[in-house]
Specification:
This protein is mainly α and 138 residues long. 68% of the residues lie in helices and 7% in strands. It is built from four helices and two strands; from the N terminus they run αββααα. Strands 1-2 form a two-stranded antiparallel ribbon. Strand 1 and strand 2 form a beta hairpin. Helix 1 packs antiparallel against helix 2 and helix 1 runs parallel beside helix 3. It is elongated.
């Protein structure tokens, strides 16, 4: 199982959302939030999207390194499942961060804290599905 495909898919989903929301972004969008959901870091939309893609790249390199360091094909399937889960969680989180930065009409961007929990659940579901599919193929 490739460890690059999940991150390419996550980047594609994030890119699609960026294109969808692009027209409603202000000059700067929120890129970092405190634990209580208040925005405390901002970048231009283009820089923010570049940061998102960089994070997917870093995750892909890390998963690739993990795959190279494991022994045995069954462990490699676990790394692949982890890659799908991490990519899904990251893509979900980036999409809700972009959505939080749209149509603010002078207000401040806020990200409800429960969104992080939903991202974790989305990652667990995607990773679990990838793991089950991998086991059926083996």
């Amino acid at each position: 199982m490739s460890t690059v495909a999940p991150y390419a898919a996550g980047a594609a989903v994030t890119g699609g959302a960026f294109l969808l929301f692009k027209g409603s972004f202000a000059d700067e969008i929120a890129t970092h939030f405190t634990l209580d959901g208040a925005a405390d870091g901002f970048h231009s939309p283009g820089v923010a999207f570049g940061l998102y893609l960089t994070i997917f790249g870093i995750e892909a390199v890390g998963s690739g390194a993990a795959l190279l360091s494991v022994k045995g094909p069954r462990t490699g399937g676990s790394v692949g499942a982890f890659s799908w889960g991490l990519s899904a969680a990251t893509a979900y989180f980036f999409v809700v961060v972009m959505q939080a930065s749209t149509d603010l009409q002078g207000g401040a961007a806020e990200l409800p804290p429960y969104q992080l929990a939903i991202a974790v659940v989305a990652g667990l579901v995607a990773g679990g599905a990838a793991w089950l599919i991998g086991r059926r193929r083996a």
